[in-house]
Write a structure and sequence with these properties.
Structural class: alpha+beta
Number of helices: 27
Distance between the termini: 71 Å
Shape: globular
Helix content: 25-40%
């Protein structure tokens, strides 16, 4: 069969039933991505005869004789297609996994279609950006700084310079985990997994004879093949932070969807057929499917020996909350529920395990923590660190979900057993049913205040559902009960919390790491207290939040010794949001004046604080050198998955070296490059790994000036570093020549930098909404969205704004639509994207973003973290706005339209003021 792909004729025959997506990737078009394989996300969009199609739904056989164009063929030689250039000019991407599909869809738009992007981009999803940057790109609005007469990346800290990977992303050259040409992995095998149909069962026997008889099947792996070593899928600097309760393959399954066996075969199809041929006998065991059942007297233990199914617990009281409540003029008491969420990174989990020429195990994987994955693999398999290499390509989104070991261990087991390269790529259904979700929280709040606005007591009783395994259970519980409580001054605080095992899909790390769930409860309670005493809710917060110098107390009588006010911008954030909401009253559209009488309008706010670095150690090491070509080579351990740290590292290094960002060439996320890096989680890519990169660059600047001084026969104090040269008394030597002279002299112009993650600062976020709520349908319409962030010195305003917008968009999904549903038998019912409402372009309003003017004494060049924290105040601010509009306090998420409608129908609404 003859296909015409990117103007080149290809002779190939798809296998029966093959979709165009997998066929095109087999032909080397790796820019065609898999996000869902169900036509829901648009990441696989290509052109067939000039029209965009979702190639995962398009039969390959139908494309014979047609003109097929992928992202690789969109450009005209070296000249980018206008839409590709527009996505560069507006940096219409973050992780970039959706970008090829977005570009291919938008490249086919006419001017009329560009006028209605909510409708015409409905088939393409982005989890990272919040869509503002995509809208700017499609409409041709340039937002990247490109000073006239300079290189496109010629400015450093404080400038909105573009991401170094941009050209590769918009052309499809960027390589993600599975984007490895077949020729580089001869003999590659594929793995599929048989998963448990029961919430709790013991495996009596597995009959693999029929599976092994399937043509192409090489092996079937069961618990008998797996090491006995227990571990946690969660990855932290201290592996003891999480309970060792997991095996690669276990003879007891504890949730519906857990691994039972793995089939390894020459093709994905053969492996899937082998899975269907397996026969398993189970002994059913009693299960507990919610925390109430798990905590009941005599409940079955999910893990034998775990008393009461409690993984971790916390009990603390500062002051006397009973006395504080008795002294209050108003007491609010309610229970607030936060639901399971899926991270929904468009790139699913996947790993490729193989051996290099030296016999080392090499694992290429989509992870936020390559060094911790190497350590975990060594621990499980009894290997030495030098015998294992872990690396990532570009990572297609993380949001905490890739701070786990969910595929690497099984791929490595198969590669070790067979001495062949093995690939394991999860499907979207497996992402929903068999990875991790956000911890569901139930928070009982009792809080009191006096009429003068003083918060007298805050009492919290917290239960978290960690699911079948305890990965991240202690950390999420402790972190959630930290800054959410510490942000308020109050003499009387009490916290009782426990993390509980159930026979359900495991919970794990998720953006906010417990804070979003707790802040939803605390900020809702603060709103009710303010209303109870007749005070403006934002003024009540201003009255009670900590000020610089106040002790930050949550569950211990003294503050954490390494958390300091490196800077303080909460007061600015509160005022910025207040002023913006006040200005909104002047617009008929924003104020809601244009709405008819069936709409009720209200405003709501919420505040959030977060430590800029996780506790208990976060390490980073960086190396930098002057290359032969006169550019600088920077090696870092941290991963890039849309968090923008690659750009920031080049900005920090180039500033220290007085050069331009385009002259810093970065390599990253490979255990061969640097000594160690804890990983890109907890928003540490800038404030930890960035400090290591900055330290290395500053040391190299000293070394470089010292060596240059010897060339000029002068002192280093007289030497100036220029973008591509060194200068002394008007004489210049090009950096490439300096590198050559150093090599001749045997001088190593390289340096290293380290940072250990302490001391730590605090960052703040404040969210405000003005909403309209339709009393007849329950629709919530966001009329105004305002966010103020205390990010210290903003390294890259465009990128930082994008992180905030993406966090708000993801949080709006959590507040309004998203929920992973689990049946009465423990089975995840939300299995495909169309059953899980990820916000699309039409769902996300433009947000006014404001930055406090602070300079953090602890962060690199004054910066703070700002990746996960914007998520945290969004849901309570929205719920508070709905409460203001309707008088109804919604205490469970999401605020779905049917939920709002039923609540309004059953309550007499207050009269509109």
């Amino acid at each position: 069969m003859t296909y015409r792909i990117n103007k080149t004729e290809v002779e190939a025959a798809p296998f029966p039933g093959q979709c165009l997506r997998t066929f095109l990737r087999e032909q080397g078009n790796l820019g065609v991505k898999k996000g869902c394989d169900a036509g829901d996300c648009g990441a696989c969009t290509v052109h067939v005869d000039g029209k965009p199609v979702h190639s995962c739904l398009y039969p390959a056989v139908r494309a014979e004789g047609r003109e097929i164009t992928t992202i690789e063929g969109l450009a005209n030689g070296e000249e980018l297609h206008p839409m590709q250039q527009q996505f560069l000019d507006a940096q219409g991407f973050q992780c970039g996994f959706c970008t090829a599909g977005m570009v291919m869809t938008a490249a086919a738009f006419d001017e009329e279609q560009k006028e209605n992007l909510p409708r015409n981009l409905k088939g393409n999803l982005c989890r990272c950006t919040g869509y503002r940057a995509i809208g700017d790109a499609v409409c041709g609005h340039r937002t990247v700084d490109v000073p006239a007469g300079t290189s496109p990346v010629a400015r450093t800290v404080g400038a909105s310079i573009p991401a170094p990977a941009g050209p590769d992303i918009v052309t499809g050259r960027a390589r993600y985990t599975m984007d490895v040409p077949a020729a580089e992995l001869p003999g590659l095998l594929h793995m599929k997994i048989l998963r448990s149909p029961h919430a709790h069962a013991r495996i009596v026997s597995i009959d693999a004879r029929a599976a092994l008889a399937v043509p192409g099947v090489e092996a079937v792996l069961t618990h008998e093949d797996a090491p006995k070593q227990m571990f946690s899928t969660a990855q932290h600097e201290l592996h003891t932070d999480d309970p060792d309760d997991t095996r690669i393959l276990d003879d007891v399954v504890r949730f519906h969807g857990q691994r039972v066996a793995a089939v390894v075969a020459a093709s994905v199809g053969a492996a899937a057929e082998g899975v269907r041929a397996l026969r398993v006998e189970y002994e059913l065991l009693p299960s507990v499917l919610d925390t109430g059942a798990a905590l009941a007297d005599g409940a079955p233990e999910v893990h034998p020996g775990t008393a009461g199914n409690i993984v971790a617990e916390l009990h603390s009281e500062l002051g006397d909350t009973a006395a504080g409540l008795a002294a209050a003029d108003v007491v609010h008491e309610n229970t607030y529920e936060s639901q399971r969420l899926q991270h929904m990174a468009l790139e699913t989990h996947g790993s490729i395990a193989s051996f290099d020429e030296a016999g080392r195990l090499v694992v290429r994987t989509s992870t936020q923590v390559p060094f911790l994955i190497r350590r975990a693999l060594c621990r499980v398999f009894g290997l030495k660190p030098e015998s294992v290499r872990v690396l990532t390509g570009r990572v297609g989104g993380g949001f905490g979900g890739k701070q786990e070991m969910l595929t690497e261990d099984l791929a490595a087991l198969a590669a070790i057993k067979l001495n062949r390269p093995v690939q394991l790529e999860l499907t979207r259904q497996e992402q929903f049913t068999a990875t991790t979700v956000r911890h569901p929280f139930s928070v009982r709040v009792r809080a009191g205040a006096r009429r003068d606005g003083t918060l007298t007591a805050l009492e919290l009783d917290v239960t978290t559902n960690t699911g079948a395994y305890g990965n991240h259970a202690p950390g999420v519980m402790f972190h959630g009960c930290g800054e959410s409580v510490a942000v308020y001054r109050c003499d009387n605080k009490k916290v009782d919390a426990r993390a509980v095992y159930t026979n359900t899909v495991p919970s794990g790390a998720f953006r906010g790491y417990g804070l979003s769930q707790m802040i939803f409860a605390v900020e809702s309670a603060m709103d009710e207290l303010a209303r109870g005493i007749g005070m403006d809710p934002l003024q009540f917060r201003r009255r009670n939040v900590i000020a610089r110098g106040d002790a930050m107390l949550s569950t211990a009588p003294v503050p954490a010794e390494d958390v300091h006010y490196g800077s303080y911008g909460l007061d600015q954030c509160v005022e910025l949001v207040r002023a913006a909401l006040e200005r909104g009253k002047l617009s008929a559209e924003i104020s809601g004046e244009d709405l008819d009488e069936e709409w009720r309008v209200g405003t709501g706010t919420a505040v959030a604080m977060i430590d800029t670095v996780p506790p208990r150690g976060h390490m980073s090491h960086a190396r930098i050198r002057l290359q032969e070509d006169g550019r600088y080579g920077l090696d870092v351990g941290t991963s890039e998955f849309g968090n923008g740290t690659t750009t920031v590292h080049t900005q920090l290094a180039s500033t220290a070296l007085h050069t331009t960002a385009d002259r810093v060439v970065i390599r990253q996320s490979d255990t061969d490059l640097v000594e160690h890096d804890t990983g890109a989680y907890g928003s540490t890519g800038t404030v930890v790994a960035g400090k290591a990169s900055l330290a290395a660059a500053e040391e190299l600047a000293v070394l470089l000036k010292g060596f240059a001084a010897s060339l000029f026969s002068n002192t280093s104090a007289q030497v100036r570093l220029l973008p591509d040269a060194v200068e002394c008394d008007g004489e210049r030597i090009a950096l490439a020549d300096v590198a050559a002279r150093a090599r001749e002299a045997g001088i190593d112009l390289s340096a290293q930098g380290r940072w250990g993650g302490t001391p730590r600062s605090v960052a703040f976020n404040v969210q405000g909404f003005r909403v309209g709520v339709h009393t007849g349908t329950g629709e919530i319409r966001i009329l105004q969205s305002v966010h103020a962030a205390d990010a210290g010195v903003v390294m890259n305003p465009l990128q930082c704004r994008g992180q905030i917008e993406g966090g708000i968009a993801q949080a709006l999904g959590a507040a309004l639509f998203e929920k992973v549903r689990v049946s009465s038998t423990g089975e995840v019912q939300t299995k495909i994207l169309r059953e899980y409402h990820v916000p699309a372009f039409a769902d996300v309003p433009r947000t006014e973003i404001y930055f406090a003017e602070t300079n953090d004494s602890l962060g690199p060049m004054g910066a703070k973290s700002m990746s996960e924290s914007p998520f945290n105040p969004v849901a309570p601010a929205l719920a508070n706005a709905v409460r203001d509009a309707t008088g109804v306090r919604f205490s469970a998420l999401p605020l779905a339209r049917d939920v709002v409608f039923l609540a309004l129908r059953d309550q007499t609404l207050p009269s509109y003021p």
